[in-house]
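[job 4471] stage=fold_predict status=RUNNING
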Amino acid sequence: MTYHLSDFDYDLPSTQIAQHPLPDRSASRLLVLDRATGATQHRHFRDLPQLIPPGDLVVINTSRVIPARLHGKRETGNAAELLMVRAMPDGTWLAMGHPGGKLKPRRRVTFGDDSAVEIVQVLGGGLRRVRFIGALDARATLAKYGEVPLPPYIRRAPEAADTDRYQTVYAAHDGSVAAPTAGLHFTTELLAQIHERRILVTAIDLHVGPGTFKPVETDDLGAHTMHPEAYEIAPGAATGINHNRGKVWAVGTTVVRALESAADTSGQVRGGPGETSLFIRPPYDFKVVNHLITNFHLPRSTLLMLVSAFGGYEPVMTAYREAVKEGYRFYSYGDAMLII
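[job 4471] inference complete, writing C-alpha cells
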C-alpha cells in the first residue's frame, strides 16, 4: 500500500500538548502496544523493567542537548534569532535563522560586547553557514548567551528547570539541538532496577538536528528529504548489539535510525561514526530493532511515520486515537509508548 501525508493525521486537543514535565520523570504513563495483535495496555513508565526480559539489550542515545538558541541584534538594531545546528570542520557553524530574508552574507548578529556571528553563506533548507567573531568562540558564546532550544509547540519561554529536564539523566556528549525525548522518562533509580534485573544496556550517540521538526510539505512522501544527522556507534556497542540479535530494545526513534543506518544487508551493525538521512516510513523491513520505546509524535511528522512503520500503520494510528481519548500527554514532555 502507498501511504500519503494525510494518512498520518489525527486530532489532538491543544490541552494535551505537555507544556511542562511531570515532577517525577518515571511517573509518565506508558501505552504498551503489541504490534502482532494490536492489543494495548495502560501502564506507567516505572513499570518498564518488569516488561523487559532479563538478558535483553536496551540501547540508549547519550547525546546531550546544547544551549543552541541565541537571541541577538542585527546591525539595524532589530532582533534576530539563530539556532546553532553543528560545527563544521573549517570552524564555521551550520545555523538556522530568523528573520531568514534579512540574514544575508556579510551581515552580522551581535549577542553581546564579546560575541557576534557573521553570515558566511546561505544554503538550502533554511540553513546558513556562520562564523563566530569577537572574544568568545562558539562554545563560550553558547555557554554564556545560549538558551535551551525547546520545541515550538512548547509555548512558553525556557525556565531554569528546563536546563535539567530537557536532558536525559545519562546525556554525555554535546551535539543535539533537540532532546532524544524517549529517554527523558528514565531516572537513575529506574536504570539501577534495569541493571538489577540483568537487563543489558549499551549506548550510542545520534545528535538530533533541526530536521526532527522539519514539516513534511509534500503529499508524495518519496519527495521529502531529511536533514543529515551525525551518529557514532562504538565498536564495543556494535558487537553487543550484533551478539543480542532478536532482543534489541531501542530507546527512541534516534536509536532506531542510527542502528538501521549502520546495519549491512545481513543486519550486522557496523561500529564507527556515520551520518544518516534515512527516512523510515511504511513499508520498511527493520533489520536490527525488535522493540521500541518512544514518545507520542506530531501528526504528519516523519517520527510518526517511523513509529507506524515499526508498529504497523493501523495498530499505531488506532493506539494514538486511544491515547487521545484516554487523556495522555503528548510530545516532548508528554507520556510514552512501548511497542513490543
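[job 4471] summary: The chain has two domains: 5-65+162-339, 69-145.
[job 4471] exit 0
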